[in-house]
Every structure is written in structure tokens, then in C-alpha cells.
Amino acid sequence: MINNTIAFFILFTVFFNLPAQDILGQWKTIDDNTGDAKSIVEIYEEDGKIYGKIIAVTNPDVEFRTCNDCSGAHKDQPIVGLVFIEGLTKNGKVYDGGTILNPENGTTYRCRLKLEDDSDTLQVRGYLAFFYRTQYWKRVK
Prior knowledge:
It holds the Pfam family DUF2147. There is one protein chain. The chain has one helix at 2-16, and strands spanning 25-30, 37-46, 49-57, 83-91, 94-102, 107-115, 121-128, 131-139. The protein is mainly beta. Strands 1-2-3-4-5-6-7-8 form an eight-stranded antiparallel barrel. The N and C termini lie far apart (42 Å). Mean pLDDT is 87; it is low at 3-20.
């Protein structure tokens, strides 16, 4: 009986001390048309909100581009270093309530992020009215 109690305690302790998989960290964005990696994005938390910043691009021709079509604070900002996901909060299994900016055309969309069951795939969805577009990003290990 004591051995079973000890085994249960050890199993319980190990199970509940495993780090929870979440969306924080680095993610590889994938081009919808080619299937090739496009950039590396850092998803981070600041003041209880989720943000995303482009930290690297795979195409050297894009590395020094700026967000020419963007407006407001994003106007003419370098693509690398650009905070393009802003203000999301956790809502059950999804993160929403914020925005995502497409630096290629300067359009801002409502955003939802959701970790897939494999925890190495992030579903990224941008909404404009009733229309949406979904991408799947892969965790950088």
C-alpha cells in the first residue's frame, strides 16, 4: 500500500509539474503558395497581452524592407522587428481580441491564435468582416 501511495505521489507530482505548452516562443511562418518558410516570429506576453514580432526573414531581399503601405505607428517601420500581432488575450483555448497586420499590404485584421493538438502547430486566423484567412505556423525548436 505504501509503495502504491509513493508511486501515485511521484506520478501526480511529475504530471502537474510538466511545463504547459502554450503559444509563447518562436514560430516559423509558411508561405501559402510555395509552402516554404517565410519568417521567424516571436510570440511574447507583455502586461497580460499577447504580441508577435518578426525577428527574421528567410528572403534576404526582404530583410531591409519597410512597411510602406502601413499606417499609423507602423508606417515605414522595418519589417524585421515589426510588432504585427497586438493585444490578444486568452479566451479558453484560443487567444483573441487583438489584431494582426499584414506588412505586405498594410491591412489590419482581427486575430485569433490557437495551439493545435500537436502543440507544435499554431493556427493563425485573421478576420475582416465575415471573411477570414488561416495559416499554420510551425514551432521553432
